[in-house]
Amino acid sequence: MSDQQPVEPGQPAPPDQSLMPAPSEPTMSSATGAPMGYPPGWMPPPPPPPVPMWNRIAAYIVLIAVVAAAAGAGIGWSLARAVNPQTAQSNTPQSPIVAATPSTGSVIGNTNADAIAARVDPAIVDINTTIGTSAAAGTGMIISSSGEILTNNHVVTGSTSITVAVQGRSQTYTAHVVGVDISQDVALIQIDQNVSGLPTVTLANSSSLKVGDTVVAIGNALGQGGTPHATQGQITDLNQTITASEGGGLSETLNGMIQSDAVIYEGDSGGPLVNTGGQVVGMITAGQAQGFRSSASNVGYAIPVNTALDIVNRIRAHDQGSDLTYTQQGYMGVQVQTLDAAGAAQLGVNVSSGAVVTGVVPGSPAADAGIPRYAVITSVGGTAVTSADTLGPAIKSHQPGDKVSVTWVTTSGSHTATVTLAGVNP
After folding, report:
1. How far is CA 135 from CA 252, 296, 363, in A?
2. Dihedral through CA 144, CA 145, CA 147, CA 153, nearest 10?
3. In Å, what is the CA distance from 273 to each residue of 116, 201, 262, 291, 351?
4. Quick one: which H or E segment has residue 285?
5. Comparing C-alpha atoms, which of 74, 66, 63 is closest to residue 23?
6. Where are the alpha helices (DSSP H) in 48-195?
7. Res. 55 pLDDT band, cuts 50 70 90
8. Of 239, 254, 342, 415, which has the fewest CB atoms closer than 10 Å, so is most exposed?
9. pLDDT, tens digit, for every residue of 363-417?
10. Of these residues, 159, 269, 297, 379, which one is catalytic?
11. Residue 146 a catalytic site member
12. Which long-range contacts (CB under 8 A, 24 or more apart) does 34-43 make?
């Protein structure tokens, strides 16, 4: 669940990164989720309160639909999302990464969580993103010495910039999304700088996991950075189906999940679930917790390595399957809410429907085009905009770099300008 205010339409909602903002930007709501009304009379509404960075901590809230598969998706800060029980890429395809044979027992000498984590930490990265006017944080795993990183899609979705901090290195790096599978919450990102010799995690075949196996969850808990946080637990169930939600009515169903009782926090999304041999067997993606902020979840869910690795190898091979996305989506840079008759009267505009601009991202295409706060957007690229919900699809139907005609209405009348769209990650 996200407390954050919706960001520019056309921008996917984010993850708990564990608390990521909602992907599409359709409705404006307060931190408590209550609708925000129009200002009385002719007085303009107060500017929306700044979105605290903390709000980006958890990417999703979980409505968990935990059911056995037999029966029947950052965090800003930590968990990328929570769960509640219920119903620009390389031109050369890369060689596939092969999962290692899982270790039987400990090869570290003991099963202490910190000792196991120390073996993996050098290849764990903190991921920080910019989404509209907010910031979010999550975790990733280096899978190639040249800077390919495996993480959750909800950790990077809707972002306009990504930075990566590698353990033991003072320098931070920028990164871009190579490809994602939105339905499986898997993303492959790549460090932009020319790097080599980076430490990598060992991905182990997850097909032989059993309930009762000892595991360690590692991640950027609460987005604090520094040495990754590690907690030890056991696998408590396998092949689970959950429904993870980021708020705003957006949710996704993830199947085949590993369930464990290793404590996780917002911001851990995209981090590894490791066996006692220091091998990664899963990727943390959601926790069954509510309230976030300072809360922890002792019921966590991870995507099995075999599932994530299959997607990563398809992305590296440039597979053009309909479930994979390689390109960014159009981005304009506004926060909006739906106009109604009362709002039109209060704002003094001569239209009865549209998307009211409640905020404009500094330096965004909307700002450059001169679209002001309290303007009512009525058309994008020839497509009528009748509500906040219809603005997102109108923008997403265009690509970054496209020049689109945008019409908006203010008290001074109707205005039209050509806007060159920027891009956000899918």
Report:
1. 23, 21, 16
2. 20
3. 11, 11, 9, 23, 53
4. strand 280-287
5. 74
6. 113-120, 153-156
7. very low
8. 342
9. 999 999 999 999 999 999 999 999 999 998 899 889 999 999 999 999 999 999 9
10. 269
11. no
12. 35/337, 36/337, 36/358, 37/343, 38/342, 38/343, 38/346, 38/347, 38/356, 39/346, 39/347, 40/346, 41/346, 42/346, 42/348
What amino acid occupies position 38?
A: Y
Nearest alpha-carbon partner for 22 in 250, 320, 297: 250
Is the CA virtual torsion 22, 136, 16, 97 positive or negative?
positive
> Cα–Cα distance between 136 and 80 in angstroms, integer?
10
The verdict on whether 183 is a catalytic residue reads no
What is the dotted CATH code of the domain comprising 329-424? Answer: 2.30.42.10
Residue 176 is a catalytic residue: no
Of residues 16, 185, 213, 261, which has the active-site annotation? Answer: 185
**Nearest to residue 357, comparing CAs of 388, 384, 329?**
388
Per residue in 75-99, pLDDT tens? 333 344 445 433 344 456 678 999 9
The helix or strand, by DSSP H or E, that contains position 366, with its residue range, turns out to be helix 365-368
Amino acid at 277: G
The answer to whether 50 and 56 are in contact (CB under 8 A) is: no
Structural domain boundaries in the chain: 1-326, 329-424
CATH, range 1-326: 2.40.10.120
Q: Give the separation between CA 286 and CA 60, rounded to whole angstroms.
A: 7
Q: Which of 154, 181, 268, 379 is catalytic?
A: 154
Q: Tokens 């002792």 identify what position?
A: 298
